[in-house]
Specification:
alpha+beta; 22% strand; 33% helix; six-stranded antiparallel beta sheet; two-stranded antiparallel ribbon; 6 helices
């Protein structure tokens, strides 16, 4: 299946933005972080790569208008470590795996920017005094797919904590309680907005450098306009229309709205 020229041009624009963002991260953060991001660049530039997506019934399909990328294990050191517990922890790092699928024809419209989103973060703290030498924590920001029926409340985009991100059957939960709910309402993120979110929380000093960089700031604002503007416009429209055509149900974003 060939990719239309206009879609390929769009993909190459996204690839160039991620490349510029990756180069800036390498300058401010280093540790080879740009290498992982270049995987997304290569996927977007690959004319033979079309990410599969699931329709509303859960069937996998391919459409040349769809674009996206999938990357695993982008590592980010944690410098905001003043409140790490247990106190014996000597260092911590976050590992991100992300996958998105989006329709070219939906981009920069007042509708859902993604068909699929998986943003998974595993945090590992090193403790030389513990039995296995490490402590784990995790969370994910996901898009709830229409084909996944559930009796629980599912905001289409939500953040959910995971105390056992390695899914170890013998995991010792200690005095904590782990359960699926609640799923916290959260705005959608891509690679650029998602990494900026992590850097802001885990490396605040580098975050300040990023947002003071004119080129980085311009890229971030463009993605906020493309991804966050539809989300918050639809949400705000619940309290009064602004004349814009809405193609996204507010109650899908926030099931609590009445």
């Amino acid at each position: 299946m060939s990719i239309p020229k206009n879609v390929m041009h769009f993909r190459k624009q996204r690839a160039q933005e991620i490349r510029r963002f990756a180069d800036k991260l390498e300058s401010y953060i280093g540790n080879g972080i740009s290498v992982s991001l270049y995987k997304a660049v290569n996927q977007l530039n690959d004319e033979n790569y079309i990410p599969p997506y699931r329709d509303e019934k859960g069937y996998e399909k391919i459409d040349s208008n769809f674009w996206g990328y999938s990357i695993e294990n982008i590592e980010l050191g944690i410098t905001a470590d003043r409140h790490l517990k247990p106190r014996e922890l000597i260092s911590a790092k976050a590992s991100l795996s992300i996958s998105i699928v989006s329709n070219y024809t939906d981009w920069e419209k007042i509708k859902d920017p993604f068909y699929e989103l998986s943003f998974n973060v595993t945090i590992k703290g090193i403790n030389p005094k513990s039995n296995d030498g490490a402590h784990y924590f995790g969370f994910h920001i996901d898009r709830h797919h229409e084909s996944q029926a559930s009796e629980e409340i599912h905001p289409v985009y939500h953040l959910q904590y995971n105390l056992n991100p390695r899914k170890d059957e013998n995991f010792d939960y200690g005095g904590t309680l782990n359960m699926d709910s609640p799923r916290f309402l959260h705005y959608p993120v891509d690679l650029i907005l998602g990494l900026t979110f992590l850097i802001g929380n885990f490396q605040p000093e580098n975050y300040q450098k990023l947002i003071e960089d004119r080129e980085v700031k311009k890229i971030i604002k463009e993605y906020q306009n493309s991804i966050w503007k539809p989300y918050y416009t639809v949400m705000a429209n619940h309290w009064g229309g602004n004349g814009m055509a809405m193609e996204w149900d507010q109650n899908v974003i926030c099931p609590y709205l009445l």
